[in-house]
Amino acid sequence: DPVRLQLLSIIRAAVPQTACVCDLTDAVGLSQPTVSHHLKVLTGAGILTRQRHGSWAWFTLVPSRLQDIARIFNA
């Protein structure tokens, strides 16, 4: 899904590869519920982890999963 790839790219570019859902909605131009749905799918796939800080959720890349995905495309 292009939106999920865009979200992963944004999070990967962030330091330290963590982003708040509040920052991602404007970056992809979609509503918060839509972005949250995409992030839930990525979290369910083990590509991201999720932590709550106050009323916002923060998402972090799981480096080993990215390496697994890269191996699929490089095979």
Could you name the key traits of this structure?
60% helix, three-stranded antiparallel sheet, alpha+beta, 75 residues, 3 strands
Could you tell me the number of beta strands?
3
Strands ordered across the widest β-sheet: 1-3-2
Distance N terminus to C terminus? Answer: 21 Å
Q: Which ranges are low-confidence, i.e. pLDDT below 50, for 5 or more consecutive residues?
A: none
Percent helix, as a range, is 55-70%
Number of helices: 4
Largest sheet: 3 strands, antiparallel
What is the radius of gyration?
12 Å
The coarse overall form would be globular
- Decide which structural class fits the backbone: alpha+beta
Mean of residue pLDDT values: 90
Descriptive report:
With 75 residues, the chain is an alpha+beta fold. It is built from four helices and three strands; from the N terminus they run H-E-H-H-E-E-H. It has a three-stranded antiparallel beta sheet with strand order 1-3-2. Strand 2 (48-53) and strand 3 form a beta hairpin. Helix 2 crosses helix 3 (32-44). It is globular.
How would you briefly describe this protein structure?
With 75 residues, the chain is of the alpha+beta class. The protein has four helices and three strands, in the order H-E-H-H-E-E-H. Strand 2 (48-53) and strand 3 (56-61) form a beta hairpin.
List the topology elements.
Blueprint: H1 2-13, E1 18-20, H2 21-28, H3 32-44, E2 48-53, E3 56-61, H4 63-74
Antiparallel strand pairs: 1-3, 2-3
